[in-house]
Write a structure and sequence with these properties.
Blueprint (H helix, E strand, L loop, with lengths): L1 E7 L6 H12 L3 E7 L5 H8 L3 E4 L5 H18 L3 E5 L1 H14 L4 E5 L11 H13 L6 E4 L2 H9 L7 E3 L13 H11 L6 E6 L8 H12 L5 E6 L8 H9 L6 E5 L4 H7 L2 E4 L9 H8 L4 E4 L4 H5 L3 E4 L4 H15 L2 H18 L2 H12 L4
Parallel strand pairs: 1-2, 1-4, 2-3, 4-5, 5-6, 6-7, 8-9, 8-11, 9-10, 11-12, 12-13
Helix pairs in contact: 3-4, 4-5, 7-10, 8-13
Length: 376
Amino acid sequence: MKHVIHLITGLGNGGAEGALYRLIENDKSSKHIVFSMTSGGKYVEKLQKIGVEVTCLNIKGLISFISGLFALRRAERRVKPVAFQSWMYHADLMISVYALLFFKRNVFWSIRHSTFEKAVTPLSIRVIVKICAFLSSFVPRKIICCSENAKAIHIEKGYKGSKFEFVANGYNFARLTFSEAKRLEFRASLGMQDNDFLIGNVARWHPQKDHQSLLSAFSQFAAGKDNVYLILVGRDMTGDNATLHKLITTYQVEKKVILYGESDDIPGVMSGIDLHVMSSSYGEAFPNVVVEAMACETPVIVTDVGDAAAIVGEHGIVTKPENVQQLSAAMAQMFKKSADKASWSTLGRDSKLWVTQEFDISKMINRFAAIWSGPN
């Protein structure tokens, strides 16, 4: 069986990490080995549980970086991989150093990010992107990108356009499905009644996710309505987050916002809410959470960032980023539409049909395999 060695910046709870995990878990034609440049993370244990060899390099300086290069070298000599696949910018740079040192041509990068606002993008990332733009002409065989929007942005940054291959994220839809039992359980745990309208936002606490616009829009939409609520699910979505708590207080929605924290049961969350809103203002490439919601027959509102609009197609509402009035109006429109139960159910079913046809995991696996085995 052929081997693939993956190098990723870290294995925490993120979109690239999730895509890597789904690829490996469902690919039965290759043996995968994973190296993480950092230590720990949600997906270390998850990968090990399915029998994947995982090595955390814990790179903190030059010595550990060099040690990591030789760890890759030992693995290469042992398994003779058909491909080295890197994930995210730091890993793209490290695998490039490895390729230059040991004259490797079977190297593939992965792009998982789109925009680079100076106010929020660290200088180190912007420097690495400039270096990778230079290296892109002669180091990677191909650059695999999950977003057409991100592809265009990176080409503008100087990346070699002919090296890009678009591969949409893939999902195991057997695990992403609506469950009436989970809906009832989730809502009961919150004290929600069946006629309460529950809007969800699944996202970590980060400026990119623009919770401020979300809360502002929700406060306008919820004014005068007794049975509408917003639940925030994700890392740091807790009462300990002082900045978030201040925003909730500022918009006077303390009695309507539920802080849920992280959840490992995304199908349960999506089944339990009535509408999912992605409010990101920048940086998204291919937002997984949109597909996850639609796969669970949950109608969606998204901001027009990355490939979000393409994912939704005709099955949701797309608003401009940071446009509070549009976002609030979209919530009101969806709330009104939900009153017609038959129409609302049809929207959910059509959403699921759309994403299952477009983003099945088998398509992603086949595309990666074809790229890895393609010509130099």
